[in-house]
Specification:
Strand 4, helix 5 and strand 5 form a beta-alpha-beta unit. This protein has a single domain, classed as 3-Layer(aba) Sandwich (Aminopeptidase). The chain starts with a helix and ends in a 6-residue tail after the last strand. It is built from 7 helices and 7 strands; from the N terminus they run αβααββαβαβααββ. The chain is α+β, with helices and mostly antiparallel strands and 224 residues long. The chain is globular, with a radius of gyration of 18 Å. The protein has a 7-stranded mixed sheet with strand order 1-2-3-4-5-7-6.
C-alpha cells in the first residue's frame, strides 16, 4: 500500500472512531457557533443569523432546549430553539418575528410550541447521523416539557437549481411527492415533519428568492 493510501485509511478510521458529545448550549460555545452559522449559511444575510451576544442570551435563558455537538472541545454542530406561541391560521412570518430583536424576547417556558430556530453542522461532519440526533434531542425536549410539537422555517438549498422554472410552493410540493430531492427538506420529511407551504421573506437569501418552508412535527405524547 502506498504512503498516501495508508494516510487516507488512517484518517478515515480516526474519523469513524471519534466520539462526538451532545451537550446543552453554554456561553463558552457562542463564539465558535457564530462562526459555524456564517460558514454553513453563507448565502443568508448575517443579520438574520445568531450572533455571539444572542447565543449567549439564549444559553442563559433556555439551555435545556438548545444543543451543541462537540468534537473534543470544538463545536461542530448545533440545534437551537425557543418555546413560543404559534398560530397555524396565520403562518407567514420572518424569523425575527419569532426570536425577537435580541434572539430570546418571545420565549416563555409556558408557550406550547418549540420553534426550531437553527440547525447546522459543518459539511465535513455530515452523513454521520448528527442531524438526526439533534432532531431526536429536540423531540425529547418537547416530550419532557409536554409541548404540542415543533415548528420551524426550513431552508431550501435545492430550490436554487429550480428557481427559474417553478414557484417555491410548487418546488415544495414536488419534494413532498418524492419527485425532487432537497438536501434539507427531504431529510426533515424523513424525520417525521410535514411541510405547510412556502414562507416568503423568512430570511434574506437571494439564492432561493428569500423563500423557506414551514415545517411541523406534532408530539404524539402531548397531554392537553
Amino acid at each position: 500500500m502506498q504512503l498516501n493510501q495508508l494516510i487516507c485509511v488512517v484518517w478515515l478510521v480516526r474519523m469513524r472512531t471519534v466520539t462526538l458529545r451532545y451537550v446543552n448550549l453554554a456561553p463558552v460555545h457562542v463564539e465558535a457557533l457564530e462562526e459555524l452559522e456564517l460558514t454553513v449559511f453563507e448565502t443568508i444575510d448575517p443579520a438574520d443569523l445568531y450572533d455571539a451576544a444572542e447565543l449567549s442570551r439564549l444559553a442563559h435563558v433556555f439551555p435545556d432546549g438548545n444543543f451543541v455537538v462537540l468534537d473534543g472541545e470544538r463545536p461542530i454542530g448545533m440545534g437551537l430553539g425557543l418555546f413560543v406561541e404559534f398560530d397555524f391560521d396565520h403562518t407567514d412570518h420572518r424569523l425575527t418575528d419569532i426570536t425577537g430583536e435580541d434572539g430570546v424576547s418571545n420565549h416563555s417556558m409556558d408557550h406550547p410550541w418549540y420553534y426550531g430556530t437553527d440547525i447546522s453542522v459543518y459539511p465535513e461532519y455530515r452523513g454521520r447521523g448528527i442531524g438526526r440526533a439533534l432532531y431526536e434531542l429536540r423531540k425529547d425536549c418537547v416530550r419532557r416539557f409536554n409541548k404540542r410539537g415543533i415548528v420551524a422555517g426550513g431552508v431550501l438549498p435545492g430550490y436554487r437549481d429550480h428557481i427559474d422554472n417553478m414557484s417555491a410552493d410548487e418546488y415544495i410540493d414536488r419534494v413532498v411527492a418524492g419527485e425532487l430531492y432537497d438536501p434539507t427538506l427531504t431529510f426533515q420529511l424523513q424525520n417525521g415533519f410535514t411541510a405547510h407551504g412556502a414562507l416568503t421573506g423568512y430570511v434574506e437569501d437571494p439564492s432561493v428568492g428569500n423563500n423557506s418552508v414551514l415545517i411541523a412535527w406534532h408530539n404524539p405524547d402531548y397531554v392537553a
